[in-house]
Design goal:
heterodimer, A: mainly alpha, ABC transporter involved in vitamin B12 uptake, BtuC, 12 helices, B: 9 helices, 10 strands, 33% helix, 27% strand
Chain lengths: 287, 241
């Protein structure tokens, strides 16, 4: 029983981190129809910047802020530089953003080296506590609580605020949103930057759990794409449910059947897509 | 009563869709404070013209000059949001509501062009049915409710120039009469209206002048008084083909 509770908490921790990454990816995809394959690299960039800031200042929260800001600015730079290409065909987007992912990956390798590294947890979260009879690191529990709180906050913003309605109107019909006086270009740039900064923030938050190493960018990207496909493109609710599902399936799969962990991850994905081709919360988006 | 009145002068406008030359030199005066109605067969470019005025489509050649009391500006090259800020609003063909927004959110996300008679409160007074359905998502509304919302969300902007592309499409006769009355009220307030319409009786009920469009160009333009009835207008359209 202790094994199952432990794996459940591990799965929720992975799901929490995935939610932070996938929510940005899915909103950018839904809003701008841009499949940003450099999202994983922006995640890792945040992690590395956070690592350096923590090394020099010893402050985890400063590291998180710096990681989020750097990835957000990098995302904004990419979006502003390549807007024309990014709004073109999906093929161009894939080639461009994958190319950017490799360039960022190599740049990080040159700056931070190839050895896996880890961020330290903040002091006040460095202890373990007892939950349902198992001793579990408080930092990981903090991540789970943070994901639920962030999910709720994002839901309130998305579904209940006027600004959220403005963003949704751009997802639904960007031409009409512009005709109603909405600066769709500013909405695009803001959402892209916020999505990128959330990826960077997750790189730092995940640093003490997953570590920071070259290759993690593509591992995380793959899982985030799976989350978006399961949850439905452009759906925050879908990103939340999909993240928790993928986190749990991936963790239980690796713990119980490590030799076929990719099968245990992708078999449910195929099943969901067979039953619901648009994902759990997906809908057909206008062109 | 609105004080500022606006007019639009369209001159030698050309729009292409790929290899298709849809607008082939359209020229039209949309006079201040009047309802100008464009009629014509399907596929002659009416929607393309109205979307070009709003800035959803961008012409390759020509000018669309907006004349206000205090400004004169060529709209070509300006994005749609700038045109809205200059006082232009569109009720598009097919309504094009935001499916994931509620009725109330449709009215909340827009910022009025200027202080005017319409607020969210007055709009709900004008459309009690929309008030009842204010929490409903647009993709759950009936055809009539969708039309009301498409009009309500532009009225709340208090526009000086209202572009309407077949606002009566698919509506019951009672609703068509209500929309005609609404256009007449707006016109009395000084709002300039450019209307594309297939229902000829409706076109005659609201128009001050009627422009007949034929294959990418504006043909004849008639003052309303010169057209006796629907049959006469129908003959004019057929005769222009």
């Amino acid at each position: 029983m202790r094994f199952w509770i432990f794996q459940l908490l591990n799965g929720l921790t992975t799901g929490a981190l995935l939610f932070f990454v996938a929510s940005g990816l899915t909103v950018v995809f839904g809003l701008m129809r841009i499949l940003n394959l450099s999202h994983g690299a922006l995640f890792l960039l945040g992690g590395y910047v956070g690592l350096s800031v923590q090394h020099f200042t010893g402050n985890f929260f400063l590291a998180a802020l710096a990681g989020a800001a750097t990835s957000g600015l990098m995302g904004l730079l990419l979006q502003q530089t390549f807007t024309r290409t990014l709004l073109g065909s999906t093929f161009n987007q894939v080639l461009l953003t994958l190319g950017i992912a490799f360039i960022l990956n190599n740049g990080m390798l040159a700056i931070w080296g190839g050895l896996p590294q880890k961020l330290k947890t903040p002091d006040f979260l460095s202890e373990s506590i007892s939950v349902f009879g198992v001793t579990y690191p408080s930092y990981r529990l903090f991540l789970i609580v943070l994901a639920f709180a962030a999910g709720l906050a994002l839901w309130v913003f998305w579904e209940r605020s006027t600004l959220g309605a403005v963003v949704r109107s751009c997802v639904d019909d960007r031409e009409m949103a512009a005709a109603m006086g909405i600066r769709v270009d500013l909405v695009f740039a803001s959402v892209f930057a916020i999505g990128a900064s959330m990826a960077g923030l997750t790189g730092v938050l995940g640093g003490p759990v997953l570590g920071v190493y070259i290759g993690l960018d593509f591992e995380v990207l793959l899982l985030a794409v799976v989350v978006v496909v399961i949850g439905g493109i452009g759906s925050l609710n879908g990103a939340f449910v999909g993240s928790m599902m993928v986190g749990l399936i991936d963790t239980f799969g690796k713990a119980s059947f490590p030799e076929i962990s990719y099968f245990t991850l992708f078999a449910p994905v195929i099943l969901i897509l067979l039953l619901r081709p648009l994902g759990l919360f997906g809908r057909i988006l206008p062109e | 009563m609105k004080l500022s009145q606006a007019s639009i002068s369209i001159s030698d406008l050309h729009v292409h869709y790929g290899l298709s030359h849809v607008l082939q030199g359209v020229s039209l005066e949309v006079r201040s404070g009047e309802v100008t109605t464009i009629v014509g067969r399907n596929g002659v470019g009416k929607t393309t013209l109205i979307n070009s005025v709003m800035g959803i489509l961008h012409p390759g050649q020509g000018s669309i000059v907006l004349q206000h009391a205090d400004i004169k500006k060529d709209l070509v090259g300006l994005p749609a949001y700038s045109r809205k800020n200059l006082g232009i609003a569109l009720v598009p063909q097919g309504r094009r509501l935001f499916g994931s927004l509620t009725v109330e959110e449709h009215l909340r996300i827009v910022r009025p062009i200027e202080e005017g008679p319409n607020t969210i409160k007055t709009i709900f007074g004008m459309f009690p049915r929309l008030y009842e359905r204010r929490k409903a998502y647009a993709n759950t509304l009936s055809g009539g409710e969708r039309s009301m919302l498409a009009i309500a969300r532009v009225l709340v902007l208090n526009p000086d120039i209202l572009l309407m592309d077949e606002p009566t499409e698919g509506l019951a006769p009672l609703l068509v009469d209500q929309i005609a009355e609404m256009i007449n009220n707006l016109n009395e307030q000084g709002v300039t209206v450019l209307l594309v319409e297939q229902k000829l009786k409706f076109a005659l009920d609201v128009a001050n002048s009627i422009a007949i469009m034929e294959r990418g160009k504006i043909g004849n333009i008639y003052p309303r008084e010169e057209i006796t009835d629907v049959e006469a207008l129908s003959d004019m359209i057929l005769g222009s083909a």
